[in-house]
Amino acid sequence: MRAQFVMSEIGVGLRRNLTMTFAVIISVALSLALFGGSLLMRDQVSKMKGYWYDKVNVSIYLCNKSDAEDNSESGSKACAKGAVTPDQKQQIETDLKKMELVETVHYESSDEAYKHYKERFGHTALASVVTPDQMPESFRVKLKQPEKYQVITTAFAGRDGVQSVEDQHQELDNLFTMLGYLNLAALGIMLIMLIVALLLIVNTVRVSAFSRRRETGIMRLVGASSFYIQVPFIMEAAFAGLVGGVFACVMLGAGQYFVIDHGASLRTKMELINFIGWDSVLTKLPLVLVIGVLMPSLAAFIALRKYLKV
């Protein structure tokens, strides 16, 4: 009988405040969708870091004759002592292989560099005037711990025979920093939506409690406990939050299916990016649903303590 009464009270409350309940559902759904999207964005950035940092190399470009001539005219100290000598080249390779941080060392000759350049930029006008002797020799270094690429830069930058030390991690760091800012922006919008949802929940509970003040007064007179009187209001908020959480899960699933996986999606258009899969999405959905239920319930409980005199 008590369960039937509670369910009937929940139905009455939802019908009386249908518009506000709908607003709560939409606000909760949007805020939780942004919350889930932020978690997925964090997973995506972490996956991209692990994927790309494992593939990029640190390149040590060696001085050639044209570098020495150009730098002597410009006053640059790099390659001031001329092109790299065979002894310097051998010493650099030996020092690289001695470092525990280094996994592999690949030497690229000028001819190989020219071949790779033609493969990538052969369609440009500049490629027709570039000659093999203008391409620098280099060592391509793969690290066991890619995040420690600065150790190589510190050890070899400015060394005799070394033109420059370049690591592709710096470009990736800029990309991941930008993605991090976008994630923070999404979290900021999520917090604003969350505050709006909480205010709507509090107002909805206040209106519902005021509209049923006569019933709650009678229940107090017959000895009903505070918890028993509060349960219908808390359950109304929890139900609205659950529906909003379900909508948020649908939006996250739809985003994964239509934006990343299905048809002409990002996965087919941007093959170089290792996108997250359904395993990441499915692990976030239970958390979204739990927060969708607990957040409105807690807000309703706090509001009832202040506005419902029991």
Automatic annotation (TrEMBL):
Subcellular locations according to the entry: Cell membrane
Keyword Metal-binding: no
Keywords, alphabetical: Cell cycle, Cell division, Cell membrane, Membrane, Transmembrane, Transmembrane helix
Start and end residues of each FtsX extracellular domain: 56-165
Record domain ABC3 transporter permease C-terminal: where: 189-308
InterPro entries: ABC3_permease_C, FtsX, FtsX_actino, FtsX_ECD
Domain of life: Bacteria
Transmembrane segments: 21-41, 181-205, 241-260, 281-304
Example of a GO biological process term: cell division
CC annotations in GO: plasma membrane
Membrane topology: Multi-pass membrane protein
Name of a matching Pfam family: FtsX
Chain's role: Part of the ABC transporter FtsEX involved in cellular division.
Similarity remark: Belongs to the ABC-4 integral membrane protein family. FtsX subfamily.
Subunit and partners: Forms a membrane-associated complex with FtsE.
Protein name: Cell division protein FtsX
